[in-house]
Amino acid sequence: MLESYVTPILMSYVNRYIKNLKPSDLQLSLWGGDVVLSKLELKLEVLEQELKLPFTFLSGHIHELRIHVPWTKLGSEPVVITINTMECILKLKDGAQDDHESCGSSSTNRSTTESSKSVTKPRRIQQTAPTDPDLPPGYVQSLIRRVVNNVNIVVNNLILKYVEDDIVLSVNITCAECYTVDEFWDRAFMDISATDLVLRKVVNFSDCTVCLDKRNASGKIEFYQDPLLYKCSFRTRLHFTYDNLNSKMPSVIKIHTLVECLKLSLTDQQLPMFIRIMQLVIALYYGEIGNLKDGETEEQLCHSKDNLGSMSGGEDESGPQMQYPNPYKPQDVYLQQDDDQQGWVSWAWSFVPAIVSYENEGEEGYTGFDDGSTPHLKSQVFKDPIVSVGFYCTKATVTFKLTEMQAESSYYSPQKVKSKEVIRWEQEGTTVEILMMGEPFFDCQMGFVGCQVICLKGIMGVKDFEENMNRSDEEACFFFCGEHLSSKGMTYLTNSLFDYRSPENNGIRAEFILDAAHHKETYTEIAGMQRFGAFYMDYLYTMENTSGKGSINQQDLSMGRSEELGSIQEMSTKRLIVGPIDLRLDSSAVHRIMKIIVCGLEHEYEPYSGLKPVAVEESKTMPTAEEVASLEDYIPTRLTCITFLKCTVTITMAEFNLLGQLLPIIMGQKHTSGFLNAATFQPVRPLPAIRIMVDKINLEHSEPMYTEQLVQTVSNLSQPSDNLLHHCYVHCYLKVFGFQAGLTYLDSTGSYCLPAPVLPSFSTAVYGKLLKLPEYWVKRSHVPVTECIFELPSLTLQSTRAQTLLLQAICQSWSHNMSNVGSAPINEALLNDVFHVPGVKSKNPLPTLEGSIQNVELKFCSTSLVKCASGTVGSIKICAKASGDSGKEKLIPLIQGPSDTKDLHRSKWLNESRKPESLLGPDLMAFTMQIPQQMDYCHNSGAVFLASVQGVAINIDPVVYTWLMYQPQKRSSRHAQQISGHSIPSLQRIL
Questions:
Q1: Bigger pLDDT: 869 or 896?
Q2: Cα separation of 864 and 782, whole Å?
Q3: Distance CA 908, CA 97 (A)
């Protein structure tokens, strides 16, 4: 009968994860077609072993479990498994407890594993003993595969909770359903065929709610906060591609999730707890929780590989130890987890077989049906499948709220928490895609089409965006990046399972780029910006075998073949591109940002991991010549490139200034409640502002992948090469192109005028490097610890006296606290002198003071003995521009150098237009400074300063007097023109 084949498969899962079940009663219920089990307890230790999460289960139970098996229509209707109310509570593993359990009770774990094996072996024997001679093995094999591929799983009211300190994070899903679909993603009863080696499934999640609350010392929640996520529904599509009908695991696995609208909410009390959760994720990502890692390592050393069950990703858990070049110590690298890939990628990869483990488990029982032999699944070696995981969100919003306690009318009524929205982040077209094939290849791409940040209602008692203010939406949006989704289109869904043009939705097998060189050529910065427009990130990690023997075999790595270790090359590259940014920092925006920072700092959580002191080994072993040659050939590094395109930052005059109350809290002082209450706010129009524009900012950062092992090896060499020393540093290169600044103002219509230039466009570059683990280089004084180089080809600053006064007023509005909300009105005459009407030429232009400096190069270097700084300045020039005869502009030099001062006493020299000296000319100034370090074993010999200056000419002109004595309300244009017409020098001096 079919029951003898299908029943053991279903019983194996139920008995594997649920306690206190009677197999005889369960088997009779299954044969009847329906099973109803109530108040079930989960086997928490089995879940922890198979999931291998860094958390431990405090409790887990199922209120009701229903299994429906349509025996009469088993080949056309699915088996339905329904779980009603499943609840699990988790917490972070305790390192001391894990150490005790992993080693102290290793015998118990072994006995548990052996008992589980003894339970499963009779089940397999029973499966290999068919009781119905009328059912051929091939038919049974095909039927069981159809049953397993079409199982429907329904979970109603799934509750997951995570507790830590005073944090309670809970996830509640009203309904989650998994079922098989056809090529149009409609519910159907499907199977894998020789013509279509594809299996599709859909998982729908309805009404997902995420809550983050704070509990007191007794463990109770006094006030419930607004949910982080409230009743959000999303759907997931799974696409499995097989090479043939007998494949035990898919060759390509695609899991993509789409969310139409994602609305997140954060209050000021939830923000510290949310940051704490993010810090936990980052600490787990980089393996910084030392006790947890140590516990996991000892557990892996104590248990055998069989303890990991059918999870093939965990069978070679010791494999990453052997994936490093010879000069590194594999065991130390694994224990320290210095590389993020070998820690979390291996852990994440262990879930891949679990996705399709039901198929492997079902096939274990009938692999020997064809010839009557015993199952031989364990002896097969599977090729790593290609796994593609994607998350897509059409529109996402994050709203930050401020809360306040509000008491009811009755004295004995409990207090309630009232929240008010103050700021909201809106994001469109979000994509997160992960592509991996085993551990040798991992790629993560993230991006979104556009985003903006909007001010909502009032802030700290100031009603700047209340409903009665009637401020425009343009003024409320102070940050915008990228494009709108309506104009960009659905490019963020390209090649996803939700894209009708994707290969999977057109019956074509998808092709993946798994080569690093081809990947970089395809996914360029231009391609990323064309698809998204606002933000694009590409993180690529590859592990290549350069020996020419093909791909890396995990079995060879686990066996520790020394000839393969030196031929493995690892690479980690991160590229981040940020599209056009428009940021307006006015009072409303700045105080909201500062308030978020203040709320994030109001916590007393201890960090998950601190900086551990590096223990320098006394006895050092010299590396061999082969090890040095291997390092010279290739050293794995991490490279990070960040690029900002077309950035515009506008800093307006402060309409109200509350920084005096926010900055002390950020600097560490105690919180004070002296905020304003219901203050009146009157917008200032026109509102002066400083506008900064940058064409491009490029930041490159590189560091060695295995820092401690590399530094230990290179520091033992008597004379390391420049290449080895270069890789022992962290290198950072910052390049800024087209930086310029000017003055503008916001008019009553909410638009900005054309900026008046103050700082013309210029470019600059900064390079720095920092020695890693300087403790190993203390006795080598010639090795630099820090180096920094600053280069500035040219910089020009020009400003009238009116522009200078306006800049001073803007700075004072932010630096001085104001007793009344709202700035003083700006002098209209001052604005008229700074900003001219476009297309209209001013009759009496004000004199302009202009200064320029060229060819500036500064260097800084520090060793264990001395700090040294040196620099050169090519030329400097300060001149005044004033209107001359017949409307021509006159250029009057005030300070210029280096300069030929032979004809300085002649008036002809003053009237000539001075040009910068050529690059081949002498520098204006050069200096060198050395300051010795205070060391225990050396004497302080004193500081040294050397400087040389070429000829400099200084001229003080009446035009400067006019520039200094400018008064907008009393200025006489005629008098200023008369003064600026003279060019008689009052003082000449030669340096």
A1: 869
A2: 8
A3: 89
